Amino acid sequence: MPIFRNAQFEISIAKPSGLPPSSGAEIAFAGRSNAGKSSAINTLAGHVRLAFVSKTPGRTQLINFFRLNSGALLVDLPGYGYAAVPEKVRREWQGLIEHYLRQRESLIGLVLIMDSRHPLTPLDRQMIDWFAPSGRPMHVLLTKSDKLSRGAASAVLQDVRRQLAPLGPQVTVQLFSSLKKSGVEEAERVIAAWLGLGGPAAGDEPAMADGANKNPRPGE
């Protein structure tokens, strides 16, 4: 179910005051700079440059909105945590991201990108702390899993699930590789369920091999 195919750019905003009126369910993508967020979005969308991929972390400074065929919006949040960005800019990005995650009523779920070699950094945990109180679902993509052996990748997956287990079924986790195009169908099934586009309903069957535990939509 390629729900991200044919996504079309709609608007970029730099300040909370620039957020457009709600016009459909929104799925946000967030992640630490250089964790592979733009590559993951491009892989899911089947587009080489829907989201800008840079070898210089910290380049994405705006919230970018992309309209999906379903009418929902893919929302690409600025990458966080790049040390070379001036402190003033970091504070502005943090304020923009926090405002969006905590106050955007049309946001129905968060896809949190983590490098599988360095998951759950303090800034990742900060993002989780901002978003978790909303009760909305969060799906973690452990990217660059092709850089790990099969055994190591499996161990990382189980460890991240264990550490996030206190949050309950609100959070699901899977391995993902943009290079190998692995994990795409699983991610699509999870997010399609958030949008009511098919797949297991809330609290139904366990999710698929490599990935999430269940797909509930608490708080929705």
From TrEMBL:
Cofactor field: Mg(2+)
Keyword presence, GTP-binding: yes
GO terms, biological process: division septum assembly
PANTHER family: ENGB-TYPE G DOMAIN-CONTAINING PROTEIN, MSS1/TRME-RELATED GTP-BINDING PROTEIN
EngB-type G domain: residues covered: 23-197
GO cellular component annotations of the record: cytosol
Provenance organism: Thauera linaloolentis (strain DSM 12138 / JCM 21573 / CCUG 41526 / CIP 105981 / IAM 15112 / NBRC 102519 / 47Lol)
One GO molecular-function entry: metal ion binding
Name by which UniProt lists this protein: Probable GTP-binding protein EngB
InterPro entries xrefs: G_ENGB_dom, GTP-bd, GTP-bd_ribosome_bio_YsxC, P-loop_NTPase
Protein's job: Necessary for normal cell division and for the maintenance of normal septation.
Keywords assigned: Cell cycle, Cell division, GTP-binding, Magnesium, Metal-binding, Nucleotide-binding, Septation
Record has Nucleotide-binding as a keyword: yes
HAMAP family named among the record's database cross-references: GTPase_EngB
Region listing for Disordered, in residue ranges: 200-220
Sequence similarity: Belongs to the TRAFAC class TrmE-Era-EngA-EngB-Septin-like GTPase superfamily. EngB GTPase family.
